[in-house]
């Protein structure tokens, strides 16, 4: 046993990070959700009990445990419990329809599935032959079937936890991509991947030890999930929100004296629409973190205007990189507003053409990566894994350019680039122009078939409440701000843009015309 404990302590393991924090600050609040608070000592105790229970159900190294949970303390306890017993955590987007959930659970080989009570009927309607046990978080005994046990019942059951030997190269989680171009792919991320990503972030923007952080995006998203480990490393406190309510966010910042907060750009944008925004005391905020989608310049400027004591930390990357690959922080956020920063420490970057040749400074190419945060593989998908790692680098699919100082600028997603009359048009460039208009709340640009030019530009516009614009006014505004061939040929006004759970606009939906007012 002593040798097992020593061996595990020498690895970069998620569970070990919780042990360190519980040893150093046992009585500090680790997580707060509503009126519930859990200290590091309590969190470790409950996570170890859960790990022992999972072991009793046959969960060991590399066995898959899924969850269909919303933000809350059970999610956190399960995350660390699975980590401690060497299992592989599979968080699932609870906004998916039943068939999508069925595909992910079956493809990932999940054998135990934790769910919210509200999803019981959905789970009953699908075929999950490999799942031997379902654990609803809150459920009356009358609702339990033979293959179910309620979450709290686990803690009234004796459970002995046994230390197991595994390394930081073992799988820690399988995070499924959004599947905007087909079936979602499961990115296998190791303990080392997550640990190094956390260390990278803390290197680029070190928070105060013990800092209080507000997390609102769903924890199944890789960026929000990574905050659980980071919180242990700084021995901080995370306040969890179950859903995004802008006025409640502002009140929480004021009441809890929140210091740092991560949100996707769309959330920041909606936060600024609260009528009495400036009546709240936001002075405690020192770090405004954003990522998950390309951020319009106007939103960055607004963040710095509203949170006067805070600096921006913009992270850019993707699920397969655990997720962050570049950071923009401090004075550079003001000096290089349009950039996503420089490559993260421990992440190697190249910008290449189709033949894997490095492109000259200032020219557009695909950004590719190497380093210890790079995923292990796509789960049970050798063909996709081989394609992603061709040439020995992970191919992001993002088109970027680099300036003379090494700062990176995202031009667009490779698959979103529009080719009209032989000219490359990058939607993000036009979207930035549209976001700058005082009457426009949101905008998305896609290419649509055009018999003469191959593709034409179409813009989808969401106006601010009470504002009105015509199609001609939008096109004229664009023509005054951008080259004529880049301006939209068609405009569609919408009440809202279709987004996935991580805040990314679903351009595939827009292209298909499936999203109607």
UniProtKB/TrEMBL annotation:
The cross-references to InterPro entries, in alphabetical order and at most eight, read: AMP-bd_C, AMP-bd_C_sf, AMP-binding_CS, AMP-dep_synth/lig_dom, ANL_N_sf, ATP-dep_AMP-bd_enzyme
Domain of life from the UniProt record: Bacteria
Tell whether Cell membrane is among the UniProt keywords: no
Question: Where does the record locate the signal sequence feature?
Answer: none
Regarding protein family, the annotation reads: Belongs to the ATP-dependent AMP-binding enzyme family.
What EC number(s) is this enzyme filed under?
6.2.1.3
Name by which UniProt lists this protein: Long-chain-fatty-acid--CoA ligase
Boundaries of every AMP-dependent synthetase/ligase domain copy: 20-379
- Keyword Ligase: yes or no? yes
Q: Which SUPFAM superfamilies match?
A: Acetyl-CoA synthetase-like
Q: Keywords in alphabetical order, please.
A: Ligase
Show the coiled coil region(s). Answer: none
Q: Which GO terms describe its molecular function?
A: long-chain fatty acid-CoA ligase activity
- Among the Pfam families in the record, one is AMP-binding
Q: Which organism is it from?
A: Solibacillus isronensis B3W22
> What sequence ranges are listed for the domain AMP-binding enzyme C-terminal?
429-504
């Amino acid at each position: 046993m002593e040798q097992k404990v020593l061996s595990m302590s020498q690895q970069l393991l998620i569970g070990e990070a919780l042990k360190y924090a519980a040893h150093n600050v046992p009585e500090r609040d680790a997580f707060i959700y509503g009126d519930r608070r859990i200290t590091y000592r309590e969190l470790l105790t409950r996570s170890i009990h859960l790990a022992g229970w999972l072991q009793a159900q046959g969960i060991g190294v590399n066995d898959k445990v899924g969850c269909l949970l919303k933000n809350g303390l059970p999610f956190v306890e399960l995350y660390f419990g699975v980590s401690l017993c060497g299992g592989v955590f599979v968080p699932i987007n609870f906004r998916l329809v039943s068939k999508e959930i069925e595909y992910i659970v079956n493809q990932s080989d999940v054998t135990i599935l934790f769910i919210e009570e509200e999803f019981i009927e959905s789970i009953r309607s699908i075929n999950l032959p490999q799942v031997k046990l379902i654990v609803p978080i809150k459920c009356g005994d009358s609702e339990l079937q033979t293959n179910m046990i309620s979450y709290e019942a686990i803690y009234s059951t004796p459970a002995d936890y046994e230390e197991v030997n595994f390394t930081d190269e073992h799988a820690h989680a399988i995070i499924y991509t959004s599947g905007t171009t087909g079936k979602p792919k499961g990115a296998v991320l190791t303990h080392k991947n997550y640990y190094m990503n956390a260390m990278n972030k803390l290197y680029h923007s070190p928070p105060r030890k013990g800092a209080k952080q507000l997390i609102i995006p769903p924890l199944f998203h890789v960026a929000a999930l990574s905050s659980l480990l980071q919180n242990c490393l700084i021995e901080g406190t995370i306040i969890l929100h179950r859903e995004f309510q802008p006025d409640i966010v502002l009140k929480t910042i004021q009441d809890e004296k929140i210091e740092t907060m991560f949100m996707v750009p769309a959330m920041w944008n909606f936060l600024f629409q609260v009528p009495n925004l400036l009546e709240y005391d936001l002075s405690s905020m020192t770090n405004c973190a954003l990522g998950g989608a390309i951020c319009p310049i106007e939103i960055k400027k607004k963040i710095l205007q509203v949170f006067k004591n805070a600096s921006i930390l913009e992270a850019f990357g993707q699920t397969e990189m655990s997720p962050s690959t570049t950071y923009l922080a401090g004075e550079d956020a003001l000096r290089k507003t349009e950039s996503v920063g420089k490559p993260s420490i421990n992440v190697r970057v190249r910008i290449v053409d189709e033949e894997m040749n490095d492109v000259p400074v200032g020219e557009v190419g695909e950004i590719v990566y190497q380093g210890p945060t790079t995923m292990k593989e796509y789960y049970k998908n050798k063909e996709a894994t081989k394609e992603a790692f061709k040439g020995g680098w992970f191919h992001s699919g993002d088109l970027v350019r680099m300036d003379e100082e090494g700062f990176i600028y995202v031009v667009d997603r490779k698959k979103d680039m529009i080719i009209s009359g032989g000219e490359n048009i990058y939607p993000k460039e036009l979207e930035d122009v549209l976001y700058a208009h005082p009457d426009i709340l949101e905008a998305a640009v896609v290419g649509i078939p055009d018999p003469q030019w191959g593709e034409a530009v179409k813009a989808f516009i969401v106006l601010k409440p009470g504002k009105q614009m015509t199609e001609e006014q939008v096109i004229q505004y664009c023509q005054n701000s951008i080259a004529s061939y880049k301006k939209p040929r068609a405009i569609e006004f919408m009440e809202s843009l279709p987004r996935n759970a991580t805040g990314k606009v679903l351009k595939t939906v827009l292209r298909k015309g499936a999203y109607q007012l």
